[in-house]
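Thread: Newbie trying to understand structure tokens

Hi all, I'm a second-year student working on a class project, and my supervisor (Dr. K.) asked me to get a predicted structure for one chain before our next meeting. I've only ever worked with sequences, so writing a 3D structure as a token string is new to me. If someone could post the tokens and maybe explain what I'm looking at, I'd be very grateful. Here's the chain:
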Amino acid sequence: DRIMERFARAFKKANPSHSSKPWPYSEDAAYVLAFSLVMLNTDLHSSSIKDTKRMSVDAFIHNNRGIDTGDSDLPDELLRDLYDG
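---
Reply by user tm_fold:
Sure, no problem. This is what the structure looks like when written as tokens:
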């Protein structure tokens, strides 16, 4: 948990609004999204999960609703790109 907190803080700091690739969302959103990506990777690549039970892109987007400040959503396009990445 502390590692993910530090990652989120460092990620936000490394991508300020004036950078070429800004992260305009909260540090908390980076924290939750980092955990979500670890879980997605496990879900998509674990041999113990049947293909029919794997997380879909729509489920991934749904699971990440309201993770930014004020229960705001991250853009679907961003989440789709991360899912496909």
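A couple of things are worth pointing out once you decode it. The longest helix spans residues 27-45. The mean pLDDT is 94. Feel free to ask follow-ups in this thread.
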